[in-house]
Amino acid sequence: MFWRFNVVTIISILLFANQPVCCQLSEGVSVVLHQTNITRLTARALHAAGYHLHIIEHLSIMGAPKLEHVVVEDLIRMPRLKSFFITQAPLLHRVAPLPALPELRTFMITTSGLLEVPNLSHVHDSRKANTSLSYLQAIDLEGNHIKTIPSHALRVRADQVSLNYNLIEEVPKHAFKNAQISKLSFKGNTKLKRLDEHAFAGNLLLRQLDLSNTAITSLPTKGLEKLQILRIERTPSLKYIPSIYEFQQLEKAYLTHHFHCCAFKFPEIHNPARHKLYETQMAMMMQRCASIQKSQARKRRSLEPIRPVTDGAQTVTALEDDDASTMTASEEYENFEEYFSDSGSYEDGDQGEFHDIVNDTVVSISADCGNFNTRNRNVECTPASDALNPCEDVMGWSWLRASVWVVVAAAVVGNVAVLLVLLTNHTELTVPRFLMCNLAFSDLCTGLYLLMLAVVDLRSYGEFFNYAYNWQYGVGCKIAGFLSVFSGQLSVITLTIVTLERWFAITYAIYLERRISLSTAAKIMLGGWLFSSLMAGLPLLGVSDYSSTSICLPVESKDIGVVIYQGSLFLTNALAWVTIVVCYVQIYRSLGGGGENYGGRRAAAAAERRIANKMALLIGTDLLCWAPVAFFGVTALAGVPLVDVSHGKVLLVFFYPLNACANPFLYAILTKQYRRDFITLVARTGQCNWLVEKYKLSTTPPPTAHTNPSTPAQLMPLVDQKNHSQISKEFSDFKA
């Protein structure tokens, strides 16, 4: 924020907080009316209270719930009035145009009921000749209900003007024409959506502008050529930032979006047409400088035969002529340079400088007309770009871009193949197949999420910041973020149910009534779908935000609610993985006895251990993909990040989705059961009969003395123990 209360006013408030006071000072009188019941502020009311109007310098009214009117004509009777301050006057809706008050330096009406800006254009009108220009140090109208800015109401010479936290909806054309305002703030006007193209035109002195926490969609540039500091924070509605060439003196910018800072960093990509115009102007300046240099060289050559005369006066005259000719040549360059330079600062000899002297060129120019050189000006801009909010492209590295396309291809093709085969054999739908369908769908969603990122990266390669707003605040990013969170949660929940189902099948092999039925599995998965949809939908309802990063993940922790949401995601995954680990420890223990459990048949026990080992491998691959993201995510939430943003992006975009392309192959495509279902599907189509025959030959064992060659072999060998055959049947979908 640009300013707070005037120092003199604050001192007055501290000294005279409880009652009307008249304190005689060498400079005059300070008056404070605290919690007064006056309805009209008039000279008679002040005089009746014992104040001498002609010596009042500071007038403050704090807490006037019944004040409705200010008789501004009576202020003329206070020729020494320097500060005028009213606060907490909810019934004060309008103030008539102020008369000439040449000594007034501070005008503040805050937290009151003003509906429009008072007309202050005549405050420093003076009929005296040869008087120095006066200016207001501060105009503060913060916290009112101002909706409009009347024409010429702020045609003033002021250092600071605050219209913060009002109800302004529009800044009209030429609202500040012929004004000389150094610092202007509209912060907190949440209804401010439109700035006219000429809203700031005619303001000859604007150096700082604050449009934070508004709803503007565009920023005009007329009148902002001399701007030094620009603040547009917490304003996500601003889509486009003008070119840096429109802000000839900009030094600092505090913006909302990372990609807007990229516009200042890469002006040639942000606005190629404007950059080309700038280069053309630079070329013209270089040509003009070269012509000046040639002119000076010819002049020196023409003076070489001339010898200096003995008369000192004549020698001086010759040098003066030479200087004059050089100046004449420079005037041509000076006329062109006006495009880039400041027209001058407004200064008052009696009151000091009205504003600080600034560097008044678009570029630092060293024009020695033999060594012309331009250096692009660097603007200090926040928030700066990073790996999650890049300037040039989404992926950032070529290897990451190529790897993502490989993962996308494997995830989409693999999971579509699994769903196609399993769903077409719906007559043989079992609990493991049902769970595999859910897992394949969740992994397919992850593949689609990565596909959307890869396409955006390919389309915006080299200039992502020009596409960033449409992508991050469009429907596409919201869909991508939803798919990512939804698939991540559903995948973990499905793997947990798969593990529990395996644990039940092995632990209670002889108790058929304790198995998870298909209807029970469907109910559990319905709860998983609802929970995953809820967690993925919360960012769409304002809890966290998918639009905060280019990869559309809710990774920024802005407030406690977002931290709780992100912590809930990590906690859910952590509980799921703990459950999975505990279940597999129990599975290993139950299969560890081998010969003892199966009457000495160690081969059968070894087969079941191989199945458990395979399942542990499947879960372990998912754990290896998820654990780094979880670990570094938790440390970041705890305020102790162990990896930088660049490495964190690699974890999120590459390692975390790896299981989406691995799961369909490890869980289905590489198993015997999937190959049998696939051949069955092909046989139904009547195509590729050679493939069906080849599969039959590969699965038919060679004839022996104990077998009948004409009898088809069993696809799944049986074990003579009843318990073991029951367990093997439960694992038939996962054997390789």
UniProtKB/TrEMBL annotation:
<dbReference type="Pfam" id="PF00001">
    <property type="entry name" value="7tm_1"/>
</dbReference>
<feature type="transmembrane region" description="Helical">
    <location>
        <begin position="524"/>
        <end position="543"/>
    </location>
</feature>
<feature type="signal peptide">
    <location>
        <begin position="1"/>
        <end position="23"/>
    </location>
</feature>
<feature type="transmembrane region" description="Helical">
    <location>
        <begin position="650"/>
        <end position="670"/>
    </location>
</feature>
<keyword id="KW-0675">Receptor</keyword>
<keyword id="KW-1133">Transmembrane helix</keyword>
<feature type="transmembrane region" description="Helical">
    <location>
        <begin position="490"/>
        <end position="512"/>
    </location>
</feature>
<dbReference type="InterPro" id="IPR017452">
    <property type="entry name" value="GPCR_Rhodpsn_7TM"/>
</dbReference>
<dbReference type="GO" id="GO:0009755">
    <property type="term" value="P:hormone-mediated signaling pathway"/>
</dbReference>
<dbReference type="GO" id="GO:0007189">
    <property type="term" value="P:adenylate cyclase-activating G protein-coupled receptor signaling pathway"/>
</dbReference>
<feature type="transmembrane region" description="Helical">
    <location>
        <begin position="399"/>
        <end position="423"/>
    </location>
</feature>
<dbReference type="InterPro" id="IPR001611">
    <property type="entry name" value="Leu-rich_rpt"/>
</dbReference>
<dbReference type="InterPro" id="IPR032675">
    <property type="entry name" value="LRR_dom_sf"/>
</dbReference>
<dbReference type="GO" id="GO:0008528">
    <property type="term" value="F:G protein-coupled peptide receptor activity"/>
</dbReference>
<feature type="transmembrane region" description="Helical">
    <location>
        <begin position="563"/>
        <end position="585"/>
    </location>
</feature>
<dbReference type="GO" id="GO:0005886">
    <property type="term" value="C:plasma membrane"/>
</dbReference>
<keyword id="KW-1003">Cell membrane</keyword>
<keyword id="KW-0297">G-protein coupled receptor</keyword>
<keyword id="KW-0812">Transmembrane</keyword>
<dbReference type="Pfam" id="PF13855">
    <property type="entry name" value="LRR_8"/>
</dbReference>
<keyword id="KW-0807">Transducer</keyword>
<dbReference type="GO" id="GO:0016500">
    <property type="term" value="F:protein-hormone receptor activity"/>
</dbReference>
<feature type="transmembrane region" description="Helical">
    <location>
        <begin position="616"/>
        <end position="638"/>
    </location>
</feature>
<keyword id="KW-0472">Membrane</keyword>
<feature type="domain" description="G-protein coupled receptors family 1 profile">
    <location>
        <begin position="414"/>
        <end position="667"/>
    </location>
</feature>
<keyword id="KW-0732">Signal</keyword>
<protein>
    <submittedName>
        <fullName>Leucine-rich repeat G protein-coupled receptor</fullName>
    </submittedName>
</protein>
<comment type="similarity">
    <text>Belongs to the G-protein coupled receptor 1 family.</text>
</comment>
<keyword id="KW-0433">Leucine-rich repeat</keyword>
<feature type="transmembrane region" description="Helical">
    <location>
        <begin position="435"/>
        <end position="456"/>
    </location>
</feature>
<dbReference type="InterPro" id="IPR000276">
    <property type="entry name" value="GPCR_Rhodpsn"/>
</dbReference>
<keyword id="KW-0677">Repeat</keyword>
<dbReference type="InterPro" id="IPR002131">
    <property type="entry name" value="Gphrmn_rcpt_fam"/>
</dbReference>
